[in-house]
Every structure is written in C-alpha cells, then in structure tokens.
Amino acid sequence: GEVQIRGPTVFKGYHNNPEATAEAFTADGWFKTGDLARWEEHGYLTVCDRLKDMILVGGENVYSAEVERVLAAHPQVLLACAYGVPNELLGEVVKAVVVLRENSDNHEPNEALRCLRSFCASHLADYKRPALYEAIALSELPMTGSGKIAKAEL
C-alpha cells in the first residue's frame, strides 16, 4: 500500500495552497508520500515503486520499477524505462523504452528488441511483460534535473 507518515517533524501543508494540502493529507493528518511499499519479514518496509508509476493492466497492478529492473538486467540494455500506455481492452499495457549499449553483441535494434522480449518472457509474468518496446538514443531520453528519466515526456 501507500506509505503514510505523521509526526512532529512532518510538514503541516503547502504554503498558500489548501487544495494541494488537502490532497496530500488524510482526514486524520497522515501525509501520503506517494511511495508504494510492503512489509517484509522481521518488520522491514520495502519501497516497491511510486504510486504514480504503477501500471494497471487488466485489473492487475504492475510496478514499473520491477519491469525496469528486469529490462536493465539484460546485457544489451544501458538504461530502461517502463510506463503505462492506454489500451482499449486492458485499460493500460506496459511500454518499455530502452537505450541499448553501443558495445553490445547485437547492433541491430530490432533484433536486440526481439532478444529483450524473449528475456522479459522468461523473467516476468504475462501481464507484467511489456506489450510495446522502443529503442532510442541516449540523447533522446528525457531526464529530470535530478537525473531521473522523465517518463511523462516519453
């Protein structure tokens, strides 16, 4: 579920923005962080993804971070991004955008994407697998000021 926090060091709201404050806090004062997490053995909390990055495929939750970890584990992938795109039947499907390594064995992007599709099929459940794949140049990958991939710009 979503991580929520409350305490004396948590800010009380957004300056001159009551609408954003109301959306960010529960009725009883808990701040909604936007992080999705689960409790592990021995009481550890593991953050899985950001709520805004979760993809809903046919009623199933897909964590983009999980798909991105699998994509990034492929030896031909330098950088990877997974996000949801609209689909009439399923609501959303996963799209993978990757930057391929220049020194990879396979310089043909279409063949590399076929290999990546097969790799994902052996590491992800059907509903988590990207339905769409795209290889782009590193210079085409939009980045935020903090060095993260700007998914909203893809």
Automatic annotation (TrEMBL):
Residue intervals of the AMP-binding enzyme C-terminal domain: 66-148
GO MF annotation, one: ligase activity, forming carbon-sulfur bonds
Protein name as catalogued: AMP-binding enzyme C-terminal domain-containing protein
Species per Swiss-Prot/TrEMBL record: Emiliania huxleyi (strain CCMP1516)
